[in-house]
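User: Hi! I have a protein structure encoded as tokens and I'd like to know what sequence might fold into it. I'm fairly new to this, so please keep things simple.
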């Protein structure tokens, strides 16, 4: 979906050159969705086209890490079991 957004000039200038603005806005929206727990870390990676490591670096850069919960641990265990099988 393509969306047109009107920004005040001072905000647009802070986002960088015109070519960088769409990416910066996408990152801001995805980051907000992650922080409100609407999307997972994996979905952040997918939406931004990043690896898991790059996504974690992106979140660290924006000081946007959620506390690691039991549910997240269980999800990681399930994913590891799918990848490597159980012993």
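Assistant: Happy to help. Inverse folding works backwards from shape to sequence: for each of the 87 positions I chose a residue that suits the local structure. Here it is:
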């Amino acid at each position: 979906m393509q969306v047109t957004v009107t920004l005040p000039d001072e905000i647009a200038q802070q986002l960088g050159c015109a070519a960088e603005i769409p990416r910066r806005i996408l990152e801001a929206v995805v980051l907000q969705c992650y922080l409100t727990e609407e999307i997972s870390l994996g979905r952040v990676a997918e939406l931004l086209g990043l690896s898991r490591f790059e996504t974690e670096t992106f979140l660290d850069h924006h000081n946007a890490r959620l506390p690691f919960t039991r549910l997240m641990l269980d999800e990681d265990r399930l994913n590891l079991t799918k990848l490597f099988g159980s012993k």
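A useful reference point when you look it over: The mean pLDDT is 89. Feel free to ask if any position seems puzzling.
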